[in-house]
Amino acid sequence: MLTMEKEEKDILLKIRSSRACIRDGYRLYTANFRRIFKNTWPLALGFAILSTAASALPSLMAPTYLLPGILLEVAAVILLLVAASRVLHKKGLLQHSGKTPVKSWMRHLGLVFVVVIVCLFIVSVLTLLTSLPATIMITANWQSQMGVMYGDPSGMPGYVRWLSIGAFLIAGFLKAYVWLTTICPLYLTSTSIALQEKERKEYNTKKHEKSIVYRP
């Protein structure tokens, strides 16, 4: 079986399009999921706790906490992706492609846009599937709270709160690895841009040198 490092080298030799970055990025993730899981499960657990808090704010406390819950969820996703990227680079699972200037990213904005949109679409679909039990619990809790606001009895047993927290934790842990699927496609996109910029610079340098040599 090929190592992750050799897979990267083979993939990067042919990557140029957004389709290749997405396809080979997900292939890289699934082929090395066991190694990624081994090095990121503590981060996934931390994300699950933050995600549980984000879900519990509007569903178990009050619907007015919806905005803080959304902001906490966004912050948890950003922290997860940044921390996981650093861990995977530190463990040698992903290689550093070096710093790419902003103007280089702007030159390949179409490539970046397509990769990000497709990755977010896939994340949305997978999140919907993995978070279905948690979504049902959130909906049930909201309906119960709305009924209480209008003077109706809660109608929810006392253990539902703990059942909801358990569902949120499991969904959050699964959701962490749904979000981590974006790292490899974005990593290959970044590396592909860096390689293309390097080739572009070398081409311009050679062109400039030839113009000096053949100058009359």
Write the layout of secondary structure elements.
Elements: H1 4-12, H2 18-31, H3 33-61, H4 66-90, H5 102-107, H6 109-130, H7 132-149, H8 160-179, H9 183-213
How would you describe this protein?
This protein has 216 residues and is an all-alpha fold. The chain has a domain at 20-96 and 113-186. It is elongated. The chain is built from nine helices and no strands. The chain has helices spanning 4-12, 18-31, 33-61, 66-90, 102-107, 109-130, 132-149, 160-179, 183-213.
Give me the count of strands: 0
Low-confidence stretches: none
The SSE order reads HHHHHHHHH
Q: How many individual helices?
A: 9
Q: Biggest sheet, open or closed, and with what strands and sense?
A: none
Structural features:
single chain; 216 residues; mainly alpha; 9 helices
Gist of the model:
The protein has 216 residues and is mainly alpha-helical. It has nine helices and no strands. It has a domain at 20-96 and 113-186.
